[in-house]
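Handout, page 2. Input:
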Amino acid sequence: MAKLLGLPECFLTSSPGGGVIQGSASESALCALIAARHAALEGLEGTEREEKAAKLVVYVSDQTHAIAEKGCMVLDIPHLRVVPTIRGKADSDNYGLAPDDVARAMAEDRAKGLVPFCLMPTLGTTSTTAIDPLRKLVAVAREQPEHVWVHLDGAYGGAAAVCSEYQHWLDGVEGCDSVCINTHKWLLVSFDASLLWVKDRRPLIRSLALDPEYLKNEFMQSALNYKDWQVPLGRRFRALKLWFTFRRFGATGLRAHIRQSVALARQAEELLEKDGRFKLFVRARMGLVCFYVTFGGRELNEALLRRVNESGKAFLIHSVVDGVHFLRLAIGGLEVDTWHIENVVNVLSEALTDVIDENPKWQELQRETFASAA
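Output:
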């Protein structure tokens, strides 16, 4: 899988690094944080260790998935620095994490006596599929006086790298310490199956290895023992479903699926814009379409979302970024084709008409909006 994604050799098991199947991106991020903290505190004991542990800082953007906050909560990491994003500053028409803002945040924290130790960029954020500029962010991390562990959360967007035209999104990945991609999100594998790669397996193993007498055996030193790469001792047999999926579809089939999802997302955008009452929040680059009704604000968008979901004809969720409430249409099912896209846009259009017709206030807003546009 690493070769299919174009990951460098440093992440292969034949190198000092390697990969392991976790349950979810949350577990992968937790393991990365455990390894990063261990590396930051290794060799310290007693009061010295406690004092440094109290100063550790993790850096994320305001678009980073909640896995970062949960990982810090579970591990009692005291400082999570959320760096605000500005549309277009680091990611064309989206909300990427700006390297200079990260560098400034780290400098401010060091001046306060804190210790930057982990940076978590994202390839395909949950709300809008923003892509953080990986190579530049890695450079910021490497400029710090102490090692800053870089964990790339590519849970959704990383899967696109099976296609050559999207592998540039991983530019700079060789500088990361760990990478996560969920095969159950866009690579047709059933939940759960998250792939975690590390460039150097030793910090991860040293942070999680335990060898009670009842687990010792003659094969301990001759094979990889994945109990030391994860939080649980036992492991589910997730590899089998990955093998069957990849055997069934092959590289060609997986690439076709990714490309089809992107094409369908663009079709959905065209149809939504053609309606005239919808506006795209950001342009789709993956299989996610973000849009909202141009009038009526959050109240109308929430009413539309409820109406569509209650109909049972489609299911969408929302997000709020930059104060804008918008709807998210996720496209990635194996059987989805152009007919489904036409149908879901029709469902949205009809539901919006019904909701507006039931409320004189929104009828008036619609008239005013299109009168001014004319």
